[in-house]
Amino acid sequence: MELHLVVDPGQADLVGQLCRQIRGLIRGGHLAAGERLPPTRLLAAQLGLSRKTVAEAYARLAYERLLEGRPGSGTFVARAAPPPAEPRPSLASESGADARIARWRALTLPLRHPAPQGGARYEYIGGAPEPRLFPHEAWRRCMQHGLRQDAARSRGQYGPAEGLPELREAIARHLAFARGVRAEASEVLVTNGAQQALDLLARVLVEPGCTVAVEEPGYLQARLLLQAQGARVVGVPVDAEGLIVERIPAEARLIYVTPAHQFPLGMPMSPARRRALLAHAQRHGAILVEDDYDSEFRYEGRPTDSLQGLDEQGRVAFVGSFSKTLSPSLRLGYLVAPRPLIEAVANAKHLADWHSPLPAQWALARFIAEGELRKHIGRCHQAYARRRALLLEQLAGPLAPWFEAVPIEAGFHMAALACRPLDMAALLSLARRVEVGLYPLDVFYAEGAPRQGLVLGFGAIEALDIPPSLERVREVLLQLDG
User: Which residue in 66, 79, 75 sits closest to 25, CA to CA?
Assistant: First the structure.
């Protein structure tokens, strides 16, 4: 191992310089207990010092019990825990960015998922697909293909900001089949998840002070992201048919919607509302951002085409990802939009992170082309359909005195509205004590009076766990009623 040490031979006490830097690496945790240091001869050659100087520094640190020599093996960081690291200086108290830093630190992000060790035994968190259904063998084979392609064709170099042509073509074909999206490969941009697609659109389309419209209740990350760009964000209420178009401000230049599976309530936008929304966008010169986050899992009713597929005027930017269909950890998503907008967003992506990882792009292109994605969605659909049915049974049966389900046709979360006032904080806390992770609906309201209820994700919980876990919730509710 080559240590990052800088010794100034023009200054006195070379041994002291070495000791201070190695001591700092150990106390700062950058050299772990038991880690081997370079031999004195090698380190002396790297630093242009005499071997005697390095040996003396090692000896001094051994005397301080920070290093230990092992005959025949070398010099190692002592196994005993080093003293605590010296505190690092904090940001200057009168920084010119204090106000902005404070605003970002104060953000409330209710959709942050718990750490793997922090979740409950029975988790109803939304947006989390079933990890046990992930097609490990098929993905491993495609990933090996991706690594070979990256070595042979990309040659480990930078790639296009828009994404690999092979993946853009595969995404365009898949969306045409699955969601009725009409787009050429040149109108597809590969992103690091749908969240980056939203971020890039906000950078390109939003200016400080401009008005944008979002659903109320809605996806808070989208609202916060738009506010971070300086937009005036207006919440537009939804009803059983989706976004109420008449309530959209005329000056809104960007309108964010989830028409296939409204987040978080779950109902689809009616055909009449879709037509009215497209007409509004055309009349007022607005861009519609259609977040199609999990609509490929459909359980009943006639499949509805995307808003983008109905658009004849080039007003819709269609956003999606493979986080729900495959795995959030892959961080692969896409944006479909008219070519001028794609070219502008591609420039923004180039400045942000240049491009998404190429081996994973090669792998996903092969995974889609070989039909593995469609097969995987089919397997997941069966599992999620069973869980959805069990949830509806429980909400219509044992939990009916307290909650009413909002009907959903797609996705893998549903909302359960409270039938009467509840102490939601106590419910969530007591449910957590009996190993059930529940999540409230009211955090997704930013304006006006929120409705009480739960958002029940059923991607991360086994079907067999649903009845016993909700029986625990029922017992908690009975306790609260008592």
Answer: 66
Which residue blocks in 260-316 are alpha helix, DSSP H? 271-284, 307-310
Nearest to 455 by CA among 121, 217, 126, 122: 126
How many domains, the chain?
A: 3
Give the integer Cα–Cα distance in Å for 201 and 253. 12
For residues 168 and 174, what is the distance between their CA atoms, to the nearest angstrom? 10
Helices 424-433 + 466-481 axis angle, to 10: 130
Q: What letter does residue 298 receive in the DSSP assignment? A: B
Burial of residue 232 (CB within 10 Å: 0-12, 13-18, 19+) is middle
- pLDDT recorded at residue 97: 81
Instruction: Supply the pLDDT for residue 10.
Output: 75
Do the beta carbons of residue 442 and residue 451 sit within 8 Å? yes
> What is the reported pLDDT for 422?
95
For residue 114, whether the previous peptide bond is cis, meaning omega lies within 30 degrees of 0, is no
401: left (phi over 0), alpha (psi -120 to 50) or beta: alpha
Angle of helix 358-369 relative to helix 136-149, nearest 10 degrees?
A: 120
Residue 198 structural domain: 134-371
pLDDT at 94: 65
Return the CATH number at 32.
1.10.10.10
CATH number reported for the structural domain that contains residue 291 in this entry = 3.40.640.10
User: 3-state class of 353 per DSSP?
Assistant: helix
As averages over each run of 10 residues, the pLDDT of the chain (482 residues) reads: 76 89 88 91 90 94 92 88 60 69 77 60 90 95 96 88 97 94 96 96 96 97 93 96 97 97 94 97 97 87 81 96 92 96 97 95 97 95 95 97 93 95 95 96 92 95 96 96 84
Q: At which of 371, 404, 434 does a domain end?
A: 371
**Residues 187 and 301 occupy one common structural domain:** yes
Answering whether pTM is above 0.85, one says no
User: Which residue, among 8, 87, 84, has the nearest Cα to 53 in the 3D structure?
Assistant: 8
pLDDT at residue number 116:
46
